[in-house]
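To the wet lab folks,

You asked to see what we're planning to order before we commit. Fair enough. Below is the target structure as tokens, and below that is the sequence we designed to fit it. If anything looks off to you, flag it before the synthesis order goes out.
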């Protein structure tokens, strides 16, 4: 029996064309699949890069910033020794006031010195309008119950101060300021004189710059494995 393809050569040509078309389509589909997968791999690489870039050095989290060290270095041991002579002498010098304020922040009691400073500023007011505005701010910030920076005052002192601000005068906060001053002088000031930062200044030592702490966003093992699984695509 003769070969049908010899009798009908057009069948052979058609079959060849179909086969070639199938190969071309298969190749095209494969290329499209690879292209579709590439953005995913690129996203994975970008994701890994982003995760790694999250690791950064942060110096601002330390009290030993260059600016603070420079300020500390400008205080001579002789000047620091004078701070230990009296609490009043410490507060009368700007560098001493700054150092004591920083110390109170480490004890979470900076509201005391902030109140004292606000009272000093209040007494510099020139007009009745200025007195009234500052008195209201000080009262709402430091005196009234549940104030954001409420200072520790006895009941009598708080009552007298509350009455004084109704028609404020220069001495409206004197009783409250005196109470807070004595509290700092008898409690916080002695601890400040025993603190390492103060002793370092007196002895002429500047604390060495703290080691940089690396703060980064830690990604999970699953995230890393998810990224690593696509390394072969690269």
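Sequence we intend to order:
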């Amino acid at each position: 029996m003769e070969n049908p393809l010899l009798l009908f050569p057009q069948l052979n040509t058609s079959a060849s064309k179909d086969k070639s078309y199938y190969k071309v389509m298969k190749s095209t589909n494969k290329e499209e699949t690879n292209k579709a997968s590439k953005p995913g791999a690129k996203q994975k690489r970008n994701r890994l890069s982003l995760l790694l870039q999250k690791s950064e050095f942060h110096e601002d989290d330390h009290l030993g910033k260059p600016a603070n060290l420079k300020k500390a270095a400008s205080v001579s041991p002789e000047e620091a020794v004078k701070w230990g002579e009296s609490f009043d002498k410490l507060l009368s010098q700007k560098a001493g006031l700054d150092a004591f304020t920083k110390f109170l922040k480490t004890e979470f009691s900076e509201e005391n010195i902030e109140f004292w400073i606000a009272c000093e500023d209040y007494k510099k007011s020139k007009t009745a309008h200025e007195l009234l505005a500052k008195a209201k701010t000080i009262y709402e910030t430091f005196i009234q119950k549940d104030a954001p920076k409420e200072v520790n005052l006895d009941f009598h002192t708080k009552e007298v101060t509350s009455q004084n601000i109704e028609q404020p005068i220069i001495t409206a906060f004197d009783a409250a300021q005196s109470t807070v001053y004595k509290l700092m002088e008898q409690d916080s000031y002695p601890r400040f004189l025993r603190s390492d930062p103060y002793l370092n200044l007196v002895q002429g030592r500047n604390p060495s710059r703290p080691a940089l702490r690396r703060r980064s966003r830690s990604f999970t093992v699953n995230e890393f494995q998810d990224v690593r699984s696509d390394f072969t695509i690269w």
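Structural context that might help your review: The first helix runs from residue 4 to 7. The longest strand covers residues 56-58.

Thanks,
Computational group
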